[in-house]
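User: Reviewer 2 asked us to show a designed sequence for the structure in our supplementary figure. I'm pasting the structure tokens here. Could you produce the per-position amino acids so we can include them in the response letter?
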């Protein structure tokens, strides 16, 4: 079926649907909110519903189900890049091996008008457009023309309009333009189909903060507003090219994707924390979704990957709730010279109920805590919707001092923070002797 559409026999389909409906009912009872789930770690030749995945890295919604980019091993242990479309009955409608390379993190974006799929082959440094109907690659780009070669590109189509009410089917696209976020080149650009740069952000090949980027993993949006996940700068932000202005919606550790849908719904995925989702005015944490890709399927439902699964779940039961599960602690150990400073590290994403910081230092030191400067600013035309943080003119996060804790030699200091004020960061200043510090952060 590689490169071909799947046409099931009627008798097989009837049997399959009966078995899968029983599975759905079991899932509804076992996992509150789960509507559909798909499992990974399968081999190419041994896939059997619902275990049909290898290791997915990107997902997008289609009229029939979902298009997925992943890596999967064959029976000989050889790793392949794999792109396919699957419906909610686990039927693979089409699939294509080695359309992406066997490594890095490829992306997929489905065009509801043409039925084509835009693919960012981050392993081979290529952006492709694939037409499943004809089994042809209809576009292939390898560079930001006049700037430099792609390194690790991920790509999306440029919207003509913000999908405010009807979701993906209502999206209109600029016919000849795409967004490319290259986390290897630290660069985001809007390109035409010849690879010419129409707009850009960041300095090609140079990582940084502010107007520069450090591993941008995702970019999408209109010609004017680009929604960017700047992974190592820990920020999901909007850059308005017309106004030359940054809007930081979320400061979140290791951001991988930042998607907006239906005007007031957003999802932020992370490499190290659960997926953060919101439906204005509510903001809440999903119960899973590490190292993920996610997209809204309707006003209440989200589908996401977590590297070995795909979940589709109803978010309405999370409305108005803060995360109340204890997330496993974060650990760190620092060896520091006398008088040195660690620099600000984001340790607390937004909207936790409680955070406990534990620190043990071999020498006298100071633990400093910061919170983001908060401001209520218009976003998506709604003046009552507060942004996570107000950046400076160059897009840098602005931190305000929250508190400081004296760390005495070989004495465990425990610092609880109830109802943290949004995103927080720490810095450590070592005293007049070299030392080592063990740090542990617990979130609830």
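Assistant: Here is a per-position design you can include in the supplement:
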């Amino acid at each position: 079926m590689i490169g071909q559409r799947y046409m099931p026999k009627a008798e097989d389909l009837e049997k399959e649907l009966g078995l899968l409906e029983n599975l759905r009912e079991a899932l509804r009872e076992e996992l509150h909110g789960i509507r559909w789930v798909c499992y990974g770690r399968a081999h190419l030749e041994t896939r059997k519903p619902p275990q049909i995945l290898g290791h997915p890295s990107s997902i997008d919604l289609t009229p029939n189900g979902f298009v997925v980019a992943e890596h999967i091993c064959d029976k000989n242990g050889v790793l392949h890049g794999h792109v396919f479309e699957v419906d909610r009955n686990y039927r693979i409608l089409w699939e294509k091996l080695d359309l992406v390379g066997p490594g890095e993190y490829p992306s997929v974006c489905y065009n509801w008008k043409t039925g084509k799929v835009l693919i960012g082959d981050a392993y081979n440094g290529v952006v492709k457009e694939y037409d499943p109907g004809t089994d042809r690659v209809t576009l292939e780009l390898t560079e930001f023309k006049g700037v430099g070669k792609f390194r690790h590109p991920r790509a999306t189509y440029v919207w003509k309009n913000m999908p405010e009410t009807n979701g993906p089917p209502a999206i209109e696209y600029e016919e000849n333009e795409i967004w490319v976020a290259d986390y290897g080149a630290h660069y985001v650009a809007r390109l035409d189909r010849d690879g010419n740069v129409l707009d850009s952000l960041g300095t090609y090949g140079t990582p940084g903060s502010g107007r520069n980027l450090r591993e941008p993993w995702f970019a999408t949006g209109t010609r004017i507003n680009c929604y960017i996940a700047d992974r190592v700068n820990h920020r999901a932000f909007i850059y308005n090219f017309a106004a030359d202005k940054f809007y930081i919606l979320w400061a979140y550790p290791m951001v991988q994707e930042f998607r907006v849908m239906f005007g007031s719904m957003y999802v932020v995925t992370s490499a190290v924390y659960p997926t953060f989702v919101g439906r204005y005015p509510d903001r809440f944490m999903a119960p899973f979704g590490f190292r993920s890709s996610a997209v809204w399927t309707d006003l209440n439902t989200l589908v996401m990957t977590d590297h070995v699964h795909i979940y589709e779940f109803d978010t309405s039961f999370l409305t108005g709730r803060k995360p109340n599960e204890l997330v496993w602690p974060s650990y760190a150990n620092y060896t520091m010279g006398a008088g040195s400073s660690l620099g600000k590290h984001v340790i607390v994403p937004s909207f936790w109920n409680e955070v406990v910081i534990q620190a043990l230092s071999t020498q006298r030191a100071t633990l400093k805590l910061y919170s983001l400067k908060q401001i209520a600013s218009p976003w998506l035309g709604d003046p009552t919707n507060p942004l996570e943080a107000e950046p400076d003119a160059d897009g840098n996060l602005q931190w305000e001092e929250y508190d400081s804790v004296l760390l005495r030699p070989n004495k465990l200091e425990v610092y609880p923070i109830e109802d943290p004020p949004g995103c927080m960061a720490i810095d450590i200043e070592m005293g007049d002797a070299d030392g080592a510090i063990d740090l542990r952060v617990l979130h609830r």
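For the response letter, you might also mention the following. The first strand starts at residue 34 and ends at 39. The chain is about 5% helix and 50% strand.
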